[in-house]
Design a protein that fits this description.
heterodimer, A: mainly alpha, 9 helices, B: alpha/beta, Alpha-Beta Plaits, 10 helices
C-alpha cells in the first residue's frame, strides 16, 4: 500500500467522514428539489446563492477544513505519526500524499452538492456546458486551495480545527463573501470567480475576486503548491510524539 | 548522543546527556517521567534537541529520514492503523523504508514475533499485547542494524514477556545495536548486559547490570523494626556498627544502614542472643524513585 492509499483510507474509512458527507448531500438534495419544482425563471438567482454563497464559500470550505486538518491530526492523536515519521520516505512525499488524499476526499464528499447545483444551474437558462465546467473546476480548485491552507494550519497549530472553523465562518462565509473591500482576499473569492464563468464578467450575481477565470484557477493551484511547500518544510519540525 | 538537553518551556526533560551505543543490548532504566522516552524520541528523530547533537548511524535522525532504512523503532504510543491488517501495516512500513520485497519481509517479521496466524486480521480486533507485537514486527521487517524499543514489554502477559525477552536478547546476539527502555530493573537486566540509568532527565549511572544492582544494594537504606525493646536493640546495632543512626519510639526502631545485606544477615541472630522478639522488619523508601534518587547522589559513575 502506498502512502497515498494509506492517507486516503485513513480519511475516508471514518464515521466522521460519513457524517460530514451529510452536509453536501443535504445541499445536493435541496438543489435538486428546487431544480425540479421551482419556476425556471427563479433558478438563476437560486443557483448563484447555492453555488457561490453556500457551496464554494461554506460547504467545500467546511469539508476541506475537517479533512485537511485531520490529515495529520488523526495520525497525531491516534499515535501513528511516530510510525509514519519512522520511515525513510521524503517528508515532501508524505505531505504530498496527505494533501492529495485530503483533496480527493473533499471533492468526493462534495460530489452530491456539485451534482445538485449543476442540475439546478443547467435548468436556470445558463449555458449548461459552462455551468458544469465552471462548477467542477471551481469545486476542485477551491478544494485544493482550502485543503492546502488547512493542512498547513494543522502543522502550525494544535488548534487548527478551531482556528480554521473561525476562519471559514467569519472570513470566508461572511466578511470575504459580502464585504466588497475584501473581495480579493479569500480562497472562496477565486472559486466564485471561476463559478461565475457562465455570466459576463460585470454581470456575475455574487462577489468574486477581481481577476479573470483562468487567473483565478491558476492562483488557486498556485496557493495549493505554496501550501504543499510550506507543509513539507514544516513537517520535519513537528513533534511526532504528540 | 553528545551533551544533549531537551526542555519544554521551564520543564527540563533531559539534561546534558551523553552516551554512545555499541552492538548488543543496552537497557535504558528509569522511573516514569525520568526522560527515557524523550531520549528515545530524540534518537528516533521525533523531536529535536534543545542543545547538543544526536547521531544515529552517523546521521542526524531529525533531518535525514534515510536513517530509518537502518533504524527500527518501537514507539511508546499504542497507535496502529486499525483498518489495516497486521500484514498490511508491516508491509506498508517496510516498503516506506526501501525494502525491495516488502511482502516477504513482512511475512518473515510477523513470523518472528509469532503473529503469522493473525497476520491477515484487522488490527482493530487485536489485544494490547498483539498490537505491541505488530509494532515489534514493523521495527524488524527492514532488518535494521539499530533498534530503539520503548517499553516493548508493556501490555504483555508473562508468557509473552518471556518470549520477547528472548527475542530482544537474540537481536543483540545477532550483532544489532538495541536500546530498550524499562522502569523495571529486574526486567531490563534480563535483556541487557549494559545499562544506562536516567533520573530526572540526567544520566546518573552507566555500566553492567550487575554493577548497577550492587550499587542499589549497597546504597544507604532505612528500615523500620518492630520489636519489644527497641531502645535496647538500637544500642546493640550501633555497638555492632551495623547502623549509622537510630530513632526510637514505643515499639519501633527506625535505623539507617549502609550495610543492608550484613544487617539482614546479623539481625535475627542478634535478637535471639539477647532474647528480643522481632515482630516486623520493614524497608522504607524502596520504590524506584527512592532507589534512583539514591543513585543520583551516591552513585555517579559505575564505569563512568
Amino acid at each position: 500500500m502506498s502512502m497515498f492509499g494509506l492517507a486516503l483510507r485513513a480519511l475516508l474509512l471514518r464515521g466522521r467522514t460519513l457524517g460530514l458527507a451529510l452536509l453536501p448531500l443535504l445541499v445536493g438534495i435541496v438543489a435538486l428539489a428546487i431544480a425540479l419544482t421551482a419556476d425556471p425563471e427563479d433558478l438563476e438567482g437560486v443557483y448563484a446563492t447555492l453555488g457561490a454563497d453556500l457551496l464554494v464559500s461554506l460547504v467545500i470550505a467546511l469539508v476541506a477544513l475537517v479533512l485537511g486538518v485531520n490529515a495529520f491530526d488523526d495520525e497525531r492523536e491516534g499515535g501513528t505519526l511516530p510510525l509514519l515519521m519512522a520511515t525513510s520516505t521524503a517528508r515532501w512525499r508524505i505531505v504530498g500524499a496527505k494533501l492529495a488524499a485530503a483533496w480527493i476526499s473533499t471533492v468526493l464528499v462534495c460530489v452530491p452538492a456539485v451534482v445538485g447545483c449543476g442540475v439546478l444551474g443547467s435548468r436556470a437558462g445558463l449555458d449548461a456546458g459552462q455551468v458544469w465546467g465552471s462548477l467542477v473546476v471551481a469545486a476542485t480548485a477551491s478544494s485544493a486551495g482550502y485543503v492546502a491552507l488547512f493542512v498547513v494550519l494543522s502543522l502550525l497549530s494544535r488548534r487548527g480545527l478551531l482556528i480554521g472553523l473561525t476562519y471559514v465562518l467569519v472570513w470566508e462565509g461572511l466578511l470575504a463573501t459580502y464585504a466588497t473591500a475584501l473581495k480579493n482576499l479569500s480562497v472562496g473569492a477565486y472559486g466564485r470567480r471561476i463559478l461565475g464563468a457562465p455570466w459576463s464578467t460585470d454581470a456575475v450575481p455574487f462577489q468574486a475576486a477581481d481577476v479573470g477565470t483562468v487567473a483565478a484557477a491558476a492562483l488557486l493551484v498556485g496557493l495549493s503548491a505554496v501550501g504543499a511547500v510550506v507543509a513539507a518544510r514544516r513537517l520535519p519540525h513537528v513533534n511526532a510524539t504528540g | 548522543m553528545d551533551g544533549v538537553s531537551k526542555w519544554y518551556g521551564d520543564t527540563v526533560a533531559l539534561s546534558e546527556v551523553s552516551f554512545s551505543l555499541e552492538p548488543g543490548v543496552t537497557g535504558l532504566l528509569g522511573h516514569n517521567g525520568a526522560g527515557k522516552s524523550t531520549a528515545l524520541a530524540l534518537l528516533a528523530g521525533y523531536i529535536g534537541t534543545s542543545q547538543g547533537t544526536v547521531r544515529v548511524l552517523g546521521k542526524d535522525p531529525r533531518t535525514d529520514p534515510s536513517v530509518h532504512e537502518g533504524l527500527g523503532v518501537v514507539p511508546d504510543a499504542e497507535g496502529l492503523w486499525a483498518f489495516l491488517s497486521a500484514r498490511q501495516v508491516v508491509q506498508m512500513l517496510a516498503s516506506q523504508r526501501g525494502v525491495a520485497e516488502p511482502g516477504a519481509a513482512a511475512a518473515s517479521a510477523l513470523d518472528r514475533v509469532g503473529l503469522t496466524a493473525a497476520a491477515d486480521r484487522k488490527v482493530a480486533g487485536f489485544s494490547k499485547g498483539m498490537r505491541q507485537r505488530v509494532k515489534l514486527a514493523q521495527a524488524l521487517a527492514h532488518e535494521p542494524s539499530v533498534l530503539l524499543l520503548d517499553e516493548p514489554l508493556n501490555g504483555l502477559d508473562p508468557a509473552q514477556r518471556r518470549l520477547d525477552v528472548e527475542l530482544v536478547r537474540d537481536l543483540g546476539a545477532e550483532g544489532r545495536t538495541v536500546l530498550v527502555s524499562s522502569h523495571l530493573l529486574s526486567e531490563v537486566e534480563r535483556m541487557a548486559d549494559r545499562l544506562l540509568v536516567v533520573v530526572n532527565g540526567r544520566l546518573v549511572a552507566e555500566g553492567t547490570a550487575a554493577g548497577i544492582r550492587d550499587l542499589m544494594t549497597d546504597r544507604p537504606r532505612s528500615l523500620r523494626i518492630t520489636v519489644e525493646q527497641p531502645r535496647r536493640l538500637g544500642g546493640l546495632l550501633l555497638a555492632e556498627g551495623l547502623v549509622t543512626s537510630v530513632v526510637v519510639d514505643d515499639v519501633t526502631l527506625t535505623v539507617l544502614t549502609e550495610q543492608a545485606v550484613s544487617l539482614a544477615t546479623r539481625l535475627p541472630g542478634l535478637a535471639r542472643e539477647h532474647g528480643l522478639l522481632l515482630r516486623r522488619v520493614q524497608p522504607l523508601g524502596e520504590d524506584l524513585e527512592s532507589v534512583f534518587s539514591a543513585l543520583t547522589s551516591a552513585a555517579r559513575g559505575v564505569g563512568r
